[in-house]
Write a structure and sequence with these properties.
three-stranded antiparallel sheet, about 30% helix, about 325 residues, alpha+beta
């Protein structure tokens, strides 16, 4: 099963482009003179990522590795790079961000591109018993060995990895500052001697929520990564139970809250996503964990209450209402 990519819509006058790839929305901003070439480069890289890392393509490197669990499978440099990022995220969060949740997500009903997942499937979810840990994944420069009885899923860090990869590829190609957004994961890079311009970014619970005029705030991003993890964006019902794509590895069930959305800054999009995902999973313990790790983050509870870490407040990122 293949995720559908749509041709980019390019706005040359404003140096912007938008399209869909990897089952989500993609945004690109750069200088007007560079946007056409930048978009072409970005689309090519995202196609590589899809062919290497998609859980929904039978011909992807990731699907082949999952199908051959217990044996080393040759993997492309893109898959190996994406898995290194995923395993680093697992190590940094003591497993709160876990790439070995593929079997759980399949059992819960998320077994195809999200647009094709039934909104309400009465079939009960028969969740598997964990057979191995992320620590049991064996990765070399050219091969991947998935632990027996386990399936890898890169839904947590994969899009952030893609945003980082695309941003650097575009910078190398066109030599000017660029913002790349893949889903809720953003990365801004600039030439070494350049000061990046401030890119306005709107934060909300989900793209559909923003389109309907839901609550939002606007921030300014000059460099690094910004990621938003939300329990509102990918939701479905299975066996009479509400599911979303952010699973707590400690329980094998959807993260219970109280956060509807967490936005975090990081040196890269992957680092930002690692923090935002871990915070959603941690629940009530998240603010203290984020403060301990010095993460600039903004958390929005199901009740609408907004909590900001001291690093976020100190940076003064948000525009005045």
């Amino acid at each position: 099963m293949t995720a559908v990519a749509t041709p980019p819509t390019v706005d040359g006058a404003h140096g912007a482009a938008a399209w869909r790839a990897l089952g989500t929305y993609v945004d690109l901003r750069t200088e007007p003179f560079a946007v056409a070439e930048a978009t072409s480069v970005a689309a090519g890289v995202l196609d590589e990522v899809d062919r290497a890392c998609s859980r929904f393509r039978d011909d992807s490197d990731l699907s082949r590795a999952n199908a051959c669990a217990g044996r080393p499978v040759e993997g492309s440099p893109v898959l190996v790079g994406a898995l290194r990022v995923a395993l680093e995220a697992a190590a940094e969060t003591d497993g709160l961000v876990d790439p070995t949740l593929g079997a759980v997500l399949v059992a819960s009903g998320y077994d195809r591109t999200f647009a094709l997942v039934p909104a309400d499937d009465p079939t009960p979810a028969a969740l598997p018993t964990p057979a191995a840990s992320w620590r049991d994944v064996v990765l070399t420069d050219t091969t991947v060995t998935v632990p027996p009885g386990t399936a890898l899923d890169l839904g947590a860090t994969g899009k952030a990895f893609a945003a980082d990869l695309v941003a650097h590829a575009v910078l190398d190609a066109v030599g000017t500052s660029v913002l790349v957004g893949v889903g809720g994961d953003l990365r801004v890079v600039s030439p070494d001697d350049a000061v990046g311009r401030a890119h306005p970014v709107v934060l909300g619970h989900s793209l559909s929520d923003l389109g309907a005029g839901g609550p939002s705030t606007r921030v300014r991003l000059r460099a690094g990564g910004l990621a938003t993890s939300s329990t509102s964006a990918r939701r479905w019902r299975r066996g009479g139970r509400q599911w979303h794509h952010l699973v707590d590895p400690r329980t094998g069930e959807p993260a219970a809250g109280p956060w509807r959305t967490v936005s975090a800054l990081g040196r890269t999009a992957a680092a930002a996503n690692t923090a935002s995902t871990a915070a959603v999973v941690l629940g009530a313990e998240a603010p203290a964990w984020l403060e301990h790790h010095g993460v600039a983050a903004r958390l929005v509870a199901d009740t609408g209450e907004v909590v900001r870490t001291s690093a976020w407040t100190d940076l003064g990122l948000e525009d005045e209402p």
